[in-house]
Amino acid sequence: MSLPDDAATAAPLQVRRGDASAEELAAVIAVVSESLAREQQTAVADEPAVSAWRVSARGVRSDLRRDAPWGRWAG
């Protein structure tokens, strides 16, 4: 049996004290749902932290040329 999308992601709601009516529960669910929707729309992900090593590290150099002699000692 598959659940609808809303039921699959819904968090359980538990009344700890008192006797809430269906209308009161619906009002709480509506307010919390709207609050979560607004928060998701305005949420901004933090920029990933970059280590000092990555900031200062240069790119990997290219391979050495094997056909080029080494300076003065080339002979």
UniProtKB/TrEMBL annotation:
Identify the taxonomic lineage of the organism of origin: Bacteria, Bacillati, Actinomycetota, Actinomycetes, Micrococcales
The name under which this protein is listed is Acyl-CoA carboxylase subunit epsilon
Query: Could you tell me one molecular function GO term of this UniProt entry?
Result: acetyl-CoA carboxylase activity
Q: Give the top-rank taxon of the lineage listed in the UniProt record for this protein.
A: Bacteria
Protein species of origin:
Microbacterium oleivorans
> InterPro entries, from UniProt?
ACC_epsilon
Which Pfam families does the annotation name? ACC_epsilon
